[in-house]
Amino acid sequence: MPSVLDRARLPAAILAARAAQLASRTLGRGGGSTVPGVVARRVDPKVLAKLSRALRRGSVAVTGTNGKTTTTRMVGKILQTAGLRAVNNSTGANLVTGVTAALVSDSSPFGGPRSEVGLFEVDEASVPKVASEADLSLLAVLNLFRDQLDRYGELAYTAKVIASAFPHLPQNGRVVLNADDPLVASLGRSTKDPVFFGVDEPALDTGRLQHIADSKDCPVCGTALRYDAVYFGHVGHYRCPSCDFARPDDPAYRASRVRMDGPRGTEFLLSTPRGGETGVRVNLPGLYNVYNALAAAAVAGEMGVGLAEIARGLREFGGAFGRVERIKAGDREVFLLLIKNPVGFNEILRTFVAGQPENAGNILIAINDNDADGRDVSWLWDVDFEMLADAEAGGEVRFDVTGVRAHDMAVRLKYAELPVKSVIPDREGALLAALDATPVGGTLYVLPTYTAMLELRRTLSDLGYTHPFWEE
Fold this sequence. Notes:
Elements: H1 4-26, H2 35-43, H3 47-52, E1 59-63, H4 68-81, E2 86-88, H5 96-106, E3 117-121, H6 127-133, E4 136-141, H7 149-152, H8 155-163, E5 174-178, H9 182-186, E6 195-200, E7 226-232, E8 235-239, E9 253-260, E10 266-272, E11 276-282, H10 287-302, H11 307-316, E12 325-329, E13 332-336, H12 342-354, E14 362-366, H13 389-393, E15 398-402, H14 406-415, E16 422-423, H15 427-437, E17 443-448, H16 450-462
Parallel strand pairs: 1-3, 1-4, 2-3, 4-5, 5-6, 6-9, 13-17, 14-15, 14-17, 15-16
Antiparallel strand pairs: 7-8, 9-10, 10-11, 12-13
């Protein structure tokens, strides 16, 4: 039986955390999405376990290199459509402290939850810690790409870290995996009854592996994989010629008949194991967002949400802040498109610039190398900027660069023979200059790393064009 002191720790932790959140916002130090979790855990180290176990329908988590925030918010929209209230670390604070802070914000002074279910995006390296404390009924792994090598190391190590969380899941806990990512799919060998999702659309086959493809060797025996279809990076349909490892047959959740509608969105046929199939519209562009939507559908479906609610939730989803976010800036429009690694950067360039040169008149690239961005920016040399040559040849595209590593970005563009119009390290000054250079009625595409995105979005908020990121 818990001691009197232990019982008193939880309300004390909640009170201290809320005071920290108020102070953070009042002093302009941010949205208070992480500090409250730090404070709460110091007062009561068991606070996450206590609060998560009070949720009536348990908790689910989403991890992977790209798409965590978008996918988690998609699931949240689907649950809302189904009449379920979820607590979620929607600002992207995805370490164990951010998950704790979200639960604290959702609780009463004595720890009673306002929500029915926990819905958390979790940093890859933090998955074992969160899984050991929170009672996760589902853990979804989206993809694994080379990202922040100074933090994560090589992908095989990251996969092992994630797999080490599986034994912490409850007996009825399940893992949802991307069948089209070889390394992610191989994690199915480390857990019972994995649920797979994947895309089946031959028309999207690029015909070859890009040089930045990371997991192109068999994770079981090391032989080079053979691909029947390559969608982007190392994602596609594959098989090993030397052993029995191959893409799982007939994933439980499948997208087919995928149709791209440029920056306006995508449509596809969603097939599910229990509810049949239906057409889905997602108002976000790019194949990578089809994968995000498919993962969200798999998570919601495994939580018992019906197909009609899944399709409606995906259709009504409007995007996550800074990821694919449209902001009306007076008589112009700003499109915020977060970048963080070569594969994600390539897909954004392919979707918004190379494929739509008539729409990409002004582009501001903002590169920081703060801790949250990753200190190593050598990955910029693996981005296929050369694909933009045709878009630039028409004289339609204007490139400006900013951020702590603005000059590094300018050099990379120079080697791609893409002339840079301006180099302004100051983020606010660069944004204002780029907006001023954008024609009335035009769109400014802003491609920032994480901390640069927060800085630029804060400027847009200060100008009255949007709200602070912590306000829904």
